[in-house]
Specification:
Blueprint: E1 19-20, E2 24-27, H1 34-42, H2 44-50, H3 60-77, E3 82-86, E4 92-99, E5 108-113, H4 122-137, E6 142-148, H5 152-160, E7 164-171, E8 174-182, H6 183-193
Antiparallel strand pairs: 1-2, 2-3, 3-4, 4-5, 6-8, 7-8
Helix pairs in contact: 1-3
Length: about 190
């Protein structure tokens, strides 16, 4: 995509935190993530719930734009959705983590998992790590999860995380349920599990 870099040149690098779970690595975005992120968003079932217009992203430029937005959130705000990578294969699994652009209804931890990696518990595993990191890093009493009313799978993830449905919001012209993870409840559940 870009020309080779001269050996004497130094390019800007975003080095966000890296989170390791039992099966996953949550890390910063890189150029190699554009193609698998675009492939994930080309799936109509995935795009329906996580693209702005609910339509698949099939063009290379639009996939690049989406990845640039994800990576740019880190540059502009110091946080963003992590790329989720499967440790055993080093494959792109999806994206999970904080999301709080201007006008958003609150500090969110969201998730989007590629079709071929669903059903393995990766969304819950990665979201737990991202929620832990967020509560450790920020003075927050709650984290939201905006989930389309018809997204039954994401609602199941929210329930497994211990979140509660607490209202609605308008996202890009359609209604989404707002699920909430409370800090005190999260910490109590984490202590009880350990």
């Amino acid at each position: 995509m870009i020309p080779p870099v001269k050996s004497s040149a130094v390019l800007a690098q975003v080095n966000g935190p890296v989170i390791e779970t039992e099966r996953l690595t949550l890390r910063s975005w890189c150029g190699a993530d554009i193609v698998p992120n675009t492939a994930m968003l080309a799936d109509p079932g995935t795009a329906r719930f996580i693209t702005v217009d609910g339509k698949p992203i099939t063009e290379e430029l639009n996939g690049w734009r989406n990845a640039a937005i994800m990576a740019g959130h880190w540059v502009l705000h110091g946080i963003g959705m992590f790329v989720v990578e499967e440790k055993s294969s080093r494959k792109f699994v999806g994206r999970v983590g904080p999301w709080f652009p201007p006008g958003w209804p609150g500090f969110e931890v969201g998730w989007g998992i590629a079709k071929e990696f669903r059903g393995k518990g990766y969304a819950v595993e990665a979201a737990r790590a991202a929620i832990d990191w967020s509560f450790t890093t920020f003075e927050l009493e709650r984290i939201i999860h905006c989930i389309d009313r018809e997204n039954v799978a994401s609602e199941a993830v929210a329930r497994r995380l211990g979140a509660e449905k607490q209202g609605e919001t308008d996202l890009f012209g359609h209604v989404a349920n707002v699920w909430v993870t409370q800090r005190d409840r999260w910490q109590n559940a984490t202590r009880a599990a350990n």
